[in-house]
Amino acid sequence: MRPKSLPWLVFLCVRVPLLLALSFDGLRGYGDFFHFYRLAQFPGLPFVNYWVEFPPLFPFLIEGLARLAPRENAFTYLLVLLLTLADLGNVLLFQRLSQRLNLPDDSTRTILYAALIAGLAYTWWYFDSVCVFFTLLGLDAMLTGRSAGKTGLAIGLGMLTKWFPALLLPALWRILPPKRAVLATLTAFGLVLVVYAGLWTASPAFTNASLRSQSAKGSWETVWALLDGNWGTGNFGELSQRSDPQAAAQTMGNPARIPAWLSLLALGGLGLFLYWRYKVTSPQDALPLIGLTWGLFFLWSPGWSPQWVLYLIPLILLSLPLRQALLMGGALMLVNLLEWPLLLSRGWFHLLPLSVILRTFLLILLVMVWAQNPLKLLQPDFRN
Question: Were 320 and a residue from 119, 236, 325, 349 both cysteine, which residue would form a disulfide, CB within 3.0 to 4.6 Å?
Answer without folding.
Answer: 325
